[in-house]
Amino acid sequence: MRRRARPVRNIDHSIVSPCVKVCQFKKDELVCKGCYRSQDEVRNWMIMSKEDKLKSLAQVALRQANEQA
Length: 69
What we know:
mainly alpha, 2 helices, 36% helix, 0% strand
């Protein structure tokens, strides 16, 4: 019996991860204290499209601005 072929994923490496190696998630907070990404954004970063990564980075910038305000 043959297995089905896995779908080919085009992994985008053109956008660098904003990770600063300070991963801190608290139970009541859904955003990392180090990079301001959500748990889903951190988990899915490698398989996100370039467009999704750019959207995520825009959200990161908004979260940082709100934190500093």
